[in-house]
Amino acid sequence: MAEGKFALLEVPDLNGGQPSYLRLGTAAPLGESPGDDLAERIQTFIDDERKRDGSPDFTSVEERKAETAKLHTKGGWRDHSDGNRISTTQGDKIEVIQGNYRLLILCRGERQAGWDVSGGHITEVSETFGGGTTIEWVQDYGGTWKVVETTIKGEVQTTFHGDVTDYYYGKLKYSQTGTDTFPTLNVTDDYLDDTNPSSPQAIPTENPEIEERTWAKSIKSYTGSETLPVPSIHDVTWAELMDSETHATSIADRTYVKGPSTSTMEADSITSSTKVEGTMKDTTEADRIENSTTADKIVSYTKADTEDKTYGNAISLTIGNSLTTVIGVESTINVGVVTEVVAGAMVEATLGGEVTLVVGGTVDVTVGATLSCNIGPTIDFSVGPQVEVGMSSVEMYLNKTDLSVARKVLAGLNIYL
Known about the structure:
Layout (H helix, E strand, L loop, with lengths): L5 E6 L8 E6 L10 H4 L21 H8 L7 E5 L20 E5 L7 E6 L2 E5 L4 E9 L5 E9 L31 E4 L13 E4 L213
Antiparallel strand pairs: 1-2, 2-3, 4-5, 5-6, 7-8, 9-10
């Protein structure tokens, strides 16, 4: 029997069970009174070993544990009932607890539910979700409480009707779904029953299937602002298959880049298809445009009337054979000087009539032999004087007829064979 003063109100036998009682004053030794098998389930508070060095009103772990050790020996109020306890209050009710508080509900079995209120923090425990919660003092932002929550094997479905506004401020906002390393989660569930602590669990991780659907009157997304743009945005996607489909009445896409813009694509093959009912217009303005293409073969097919205008100099280089086929009439109009240089042999074949009209002077210079072969009648017509100058000239005809209204031949020496 404990020494000291106490008052005891006891009902020895309630419905054939153990007594119900109220004891005020000195505490009886734990284990001597009815209900002590339940009372001994709580021996500690979570704050007893919480990391809180540097926090306001700091108390050492030793001091906290020493005070909790007197939990069942300090005395005060002790009551127990083998029956139910029902308390009703018509008006207000106030409870003020100077110390810590722990509520353990066994739920008519050996389940644990309740909460621990110690050190200014509330830790809720239930079988709804497995997992653990740690709260500790850290020096971020000049000192603050850090909460780490781990939930395992949980399933949540949430329906919310109303307005939602979220604001986030701070040094870091990190979000991760899934993993590429598949670590094992080592978790110990929170518990309130000190005689039945939770055992550590090793939970394998897996990646989820993600599906998002959104219906809205309008959707607006803004990242950064003209006043404070984001210093850096890095977006990386790895996927086996990407399928994107957009249906819209109209699309406006604008990108403004103050510095260089680089785009790179590497693919086994690329297929691009565009269908436009009206006009497709592409406008590019640049100081210089460079386009480089390397391929085994380039095939271009255009079925349309084509109009191509170039203002400026044009240089075209083809190393290899070039074949141009025109089925129809081809007209080339050059206003200015045309210079054509062929280093090697040049063969021109015309099946049909050919008309060449030159308004202005023409100079043909050939360094080397020239062979001209006409199978059929040839008519040369010139309006204006025609002068032929040469060191030597040889003409061979099977039959030649010259018709001239007037012809002048001026030569120092003429030899006819």
